């Protein structure tokens, strides 16, 4: 349990209330006192544990200060902003949505690259040199910056001399998102993909074998019968075409078209396609999901276990820095030290919140806590606790006799009852029905006024029965939302009737009301936590969009509805004459710029319609097959696996132990609070669960993780190189 | 050893080797001796436990004999045959594939109904009267028979007087499959659907709410813009149409068509559709899967637990009938009794197999077994053990010097090596490639001969190195398969070259070879066990086919390719003029007979294309929505859930304890056997896992079931009515 640069502590001198701690400057004084440097170091450990950062920083005071700066939220936002700008350059580069001259985009890109370089240099200053070059992430970023520069120079030179040039380095840009220090969750998602790959590959080979065999059978069964497709082409005569068609059938995109010629010829041939769909669409796709889900669960558990071990290890280090030993007893940390530490880690924490956390940690009021209780701190800080000041309603102060009268009390009780909420949910639903009805009828138009009055009444009633400052506090998102929506609607309707405006403003009004219906979304509120796992999508989409744009840009043109160009009938490409693609007016589904590329890729995710492979060489179909494999077979299945797992956690796992002990404590304390402030309408604390995806993950597997078991930590030595080479390099650089 | 009709045993008299048992006739003598009635009763209990039958039969000797008859495999096959005939009547009834006069189908149906009635009466004789009428299954069958009769009379009368009539009772026919005593697995599948319903309903309401809200937004966003669909109809102007279109978008069937008009108008509208697809297709569909999977796991575990409890209870009863008590000791069953019992339960069991099972049960060679070991019997009998007689190769007897020479031994070792199998797998793959190549080339045609010779060589080599009777034993399916395929191919090729036949017979030959490729399927051999869970499909499909046929029969006509009828352009229905349905030549996708109905429903499962709702009232769309809800949202998800669970079991759960102890025992015994028969080429026993789906299910949850815990059984009283009303009536009539 020794520490990198821990100083000596004697418990006698540690002050009891945390106020008497002397700052001893930057000198790394030895002796019995804890220096500012010690607290900084401990705070960094706790903060790293809290946010699951695994950076092996230098422990010299200078390096720690640099490291604190590196972790400053401002710099983190700046990095993301520069990456966003870098990625957004695709909008302005050829093929562009909004064309800009090359020199403008190049300058912007250079600025971005400079920023990434600066960040990388900063990181290199924080961690030891040899560790910096051992980390593949740093090498990756370095390579991306270098390759981008090389590509820019080559591209500029080629363009200047009039040659055809490709900005190939653009596919590397989204990889920055994966490799920056903050991209932990994204890396985890990619790791779970990589871990599932061997098994997916095995099933995929079986699957492809099945597709190839069925194609062979199809060739033998249908090839010589002279059947024609609906477009008049020969049906199932070329082996590779059959393979592609049957592969697309797995995505169900060309069902039942691909089967119709054979089915029209003989009803028995339907058996072939039914068997094919049963085996390849249903069984194989389910097995893909099973493989991905199985691997996902297995490796995620392992990663979370490592995460928790690393977290504990950091907390033990922080404890080591701050511990005091009284004689033969177990080392402890005093409340004063603890307070100082928490204020350093989370400067904006309120005193009440901090005291609550202390009372949870120091359950027996001993004034100091041992290692086990101290280690909880990182998790405790991750539980979102909203402290509310319970103030009396202003009306109670101004008109106490009226506000405390029994009719007034009845109103307050009614509004605070759950039925009030449900009543208004119902009113919103009825409103939705009226919006759907024919609005030409003046009666129905007037009903809108009635609804508006009802909504206004709701807000006023709530303001009457709840304390207004609490009602409009920072965390009451839906209250703000409701109020803004209703006031906007009120203003819009008044303007509308005052100016006798025509239909358009009515329409805006309707949309405002429909937005209000979003309020009902709160029932599925925790879907947002799933967001973290969807992250691989943008990275993969961006890469495919870049490649797709180089392959297909300008091959298909979109004509406005009022265009009379004769090329409109075949999307400006004679190869598409009479194709289903052109007939269905899909011309806007093209790779002509980044926006339409993204929309097209989303369409391809849903249904792999790839009509326009006709415009280029047949091998471009590989692009669509590859996209299907990567996005539908792998990433969507990981997404589904996460939904399944999160759902099971929601339904089967109880609250975390820590969260329930915190809630218990709050209830205990509240009991006391309530006696003094009888009309506090909001419970003093809200606990909407863990703040972070990491927290959710930890909760998922908490049942398997023994919170008291420190034996693991003993054999976890971050300086041991074997721990640096996890099969899944979860720790950024520990 | 002893004979099937053995009578009294006194433990003292029971000889150690089971040969001296005296027969004492059919008297139901009491006392220390066990009568034939006792053995019959015990055998029925064991057999019920083995096959998880839960029928509360009378225990009088007459009832037991009737019950044994009821369970006779001949009667069970007859019942299935009659149900199959009854279901197949749909082929001959109007709208018919092969029309038969009404009187013919009616007579056949009457015969079937008579058979079902006879079976029901037989069942009523076996179990107590009051239990018979308490069982909803019996009432169900009774009602189905009665309603079918009523329907036949009404239909006949209406037809005779020239009115329009509907054979509505046909939708009830598949319910027979669910309600017969043997339909346990099907009932379990339906129960798991029913159990998931409340949660599915909740998610479904949220989902429909989301669809309705998005439709409302779509109406407001697009309704007044005067957009047109590709077919020229107004785009998104009618609320109900929008709801339907957006519902279909969830199935991805009309993507991207439904989005194109809005997307062509403005690129920003794509955001609406992307949000919609993300929420409703991906998130909601994943949540449906999660809900179904979660419920599936939960209730299946509960059911398997009950199944195991009931099985143990029956085995304890059988033990109670046969037990002997020596003084103060625990009651036991002697080997002689046990042998007699096993022979009664499984008359075709070999002596070696029975002795193996005994040696597993009586691990310490005490000559008798206690309750715990006895209860295992039902599971032991369910483990498939194939006993092989190890005979010397005939060539060894005829030409020992040649067969035992070292080159001959080398050949045998080579053929028995795994590499031999892989080599031939590779040869089959190469053959597949050659089949895919252009067969006009005479060289390639001749290559076929080479492959045929290789395959013949393989079979001859195997016959040389393996004992021929063992090679062609009953359980060696793939050996039979290979041999038949190769010999068929040989005969076909000889005839082909002798008669100089043209292409057609070559094609047959190719198909024969492709069939051979099926041999490679053995890698995914255990997929067949999934069959049990797919069973709900036929029942649901049949019901939907019946309803669909009444709704849509004759509305769409299919014209042969060479037809010149002008109606061909719109499938014989003017309402389909210029529709996408007719343009794509989907006319054969209709409900005109049971075969095309089934194929169409399968297509609807894959992609819910419902183009021909145009031919009838718009409310017929409900049929398609309902089909999607029932089949895609519920049944397919249950299927996927089963695949997921079975996959996890395959990869994570080890063999059952019983199975491994059996295998250990076999290894012990084999060691002795091998010394005497050194050239036995097949291991004496194969253990291809559990025979039944029930066995697989039990293995899935074995970890949670304590095999030694009999406490459960004590409080499980089959005579207690509360045990008769399980929330899931898993026990047929216990």
Explain this structure.
The structure is a homodimer of 734-residue chains. The first copy, chain A, has 734 residues and is mainly alpha-helical. Among the domains of chain A are: 56-180, Four Helix Bundle (Hemerythrin (Met), subunit A); 401-532, Four Helix Bundle (Hemerythrin (Met), subunit A) (Up-down Bundle), CATH 1.20.120; 536-651, Helix Hairpins, CATH 1.10.287. In chain A, 63% of the residues lie in helices and 1% in strands. Chain A contains 32 helices and 4 strands. The first copy, chain A, has helices spanning 36-50, 61-70, 73-88, 102-126, 129-134, 136-160, 173-179, 184-222, 239-250, 260-265, 269-322, 335-345, 351-361, 371-375, 377-382, 394-398, 400-403, 406-416, 418-436, 442-465, 468-471, 477-499, 503-517, 531-534, 536-552, 580-583, 594-606, 621-652, 657-676, 693-700, 711-714, 721-724; strands at 333-334, 368-369, 386-387, 685-686. In chain A, the strands form 2 sheets. The first copy, chain A, has a two-stranded antiparallel sheet. Chain A is globular and about 90 Å long. Residues 1-31, 671-691 and 707-734 of chain A have low confidence and may be disordered. Chains A and B meet through helix 8, helix 10, helix 11, helix 19 and helix 23 of A and helix 8, helix 10, helix 11, helix 19 and helix 23 of B. Chains A, B: Keywords: Membrane, Transmembrane, Transmembrane helix. Chains A, B: Its main location: membrane.
């Amino acid at each position: 349990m020794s520490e990198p640069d821990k100083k000596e502590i004697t418990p006698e001198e540690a002050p009891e209330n945390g106020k008497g701690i002397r700052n001893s400057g930057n000198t790394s004084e030895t002796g019995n006192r804890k220096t500012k440097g010690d607290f900084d170091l401990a705070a960094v450990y706790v903060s790293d544990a809290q946010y699951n950062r695994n950076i092996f920083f230098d422990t010299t005071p200078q390096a720690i200060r640099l490291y604190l700066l590196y972790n400053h939220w401002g710099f983190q936002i700046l990095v993301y902003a520069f990456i966003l700008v870098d990625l957004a350059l695709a909008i302005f580069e050829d093929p562009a949505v909004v064309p800009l001259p090359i020199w403008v985009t190049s300058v912007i890109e250079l600025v971005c690259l400079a920023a990434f370089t600066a960040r990388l240099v900063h990181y290199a200053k924080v961690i030891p040199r040899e560790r910096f070059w051992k980390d593949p992430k740093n090498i990756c970023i370095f390579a991306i910056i270098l390759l981008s520069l090389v590509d820019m120079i080559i591209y500029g030179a080629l363009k200047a001399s009039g040659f055809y040039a490709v900005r190939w380095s653009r596919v590397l840009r989204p990889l920055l998102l994966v490799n920056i220090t903050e991209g932990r969750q994204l890396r985890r998602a990619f790791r779970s993909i990589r871990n599932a790959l061997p098994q997916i590959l095995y099933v995929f080979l079986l699957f492809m074998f099945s597709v190839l065999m069925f194609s062979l059978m199809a060739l033998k069964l249908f090839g010589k019968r002279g059947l024609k497709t609906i477009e008049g082409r020969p049906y199932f005569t070329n082996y590779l075409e059959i393979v592609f068609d049957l592969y697309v059938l797995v995505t169900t995109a060309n069902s039942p078209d691909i089967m119709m010629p054979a089915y029209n010829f003989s009803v028995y041939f339907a058996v072939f396609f039914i068997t094919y769909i049963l085996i390849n669409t249903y069984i194989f796709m389910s097995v893909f999901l099973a493989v991905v889900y199985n691997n996902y669960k297995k490796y995620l558990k392992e990663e979370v276990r490592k995460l928790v071990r690393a977290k504990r290890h950091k907390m033990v280090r922080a404890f080591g820095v701050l511990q005091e030993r009284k004689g033969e007893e177990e080392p402890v940390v005093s409340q004063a030290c603890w307070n100082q530490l928490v204020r350093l880690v989370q400067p904006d924490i309120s005193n009440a919140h901090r005291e609550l956390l202390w009372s949870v940690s120091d359950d027996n009021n001993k004034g100091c806590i041992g290692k086990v209780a101290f280690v909880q701190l990182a998790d405790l800080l991750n539980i979102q606790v909203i402290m509310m000041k319970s103030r009396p309603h202003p009306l109670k102060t101004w008109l106490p006799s009226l506000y405390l009268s029994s009719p007034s009390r009845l109103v307050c009780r009614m509004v605070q009852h759950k039925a009030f909420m449900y009543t208004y949910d119902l009113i919103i639903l009825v409103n939705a029905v009226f919006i759907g009805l024919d609005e030409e009828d003046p009666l129905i138009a007037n009903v809108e006024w009635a609804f508006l009055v009802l909504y206004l009444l709701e807000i006023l009633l709530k303001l009457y029965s709840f304390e207004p400052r609490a009602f409009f506090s920072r965390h009451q998102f839906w209250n703000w939302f409701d109020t803004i929506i209703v006031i906007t609607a009120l203003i819009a309707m008044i303007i509308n009737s005052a100016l006798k405006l025509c239909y358009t403003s009515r329409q805006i009004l309707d949309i405002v009301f429909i937005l209000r219906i979003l309020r009902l979304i709160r029932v599925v509120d925790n879907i947002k936590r799933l967001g973290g796992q969807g992250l691989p999508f943008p990275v993969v989409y961006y890469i495919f969009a870049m490649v797709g744009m180089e392959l297909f840009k300008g091959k298909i043109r979109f004509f406005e509805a009022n265009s009379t160009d004769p090329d409109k009938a075949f999307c400006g490409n004679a190869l598409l004459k009479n194709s289903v693609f052109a007939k269905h007016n899909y011309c806007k589904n093209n790779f002509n710029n980044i926006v339409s590329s993204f929309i097209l890729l989303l369409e391809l995710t849903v249904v792999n319609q790839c009509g326009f492979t006709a415009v280029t060489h047949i091998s471009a179909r590989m692009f669509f097959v590859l996209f299907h494999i990567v996005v539908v077979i792998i990433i969507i299945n990981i997404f589904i696996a996460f939904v399944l797992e999160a759902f099971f956690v929601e339904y089967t796992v109880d609250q975390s132990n820590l969260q329930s002990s915190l809630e218990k404590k709050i209830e205990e304390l509240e009991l006391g609070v309530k006696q003094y402030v009888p009309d506090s309408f909001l419970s003093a604390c809200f606990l909407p669960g863990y703040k972070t995806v990491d927290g959710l993950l930890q909760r998922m597997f908490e049942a398997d993780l023994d919170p008291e078991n420190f034996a693991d930590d003993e054999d976890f030595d971050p300086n041991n190189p074997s721990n640096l080479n996890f099969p899944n390099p979860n720790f950024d650089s520990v």
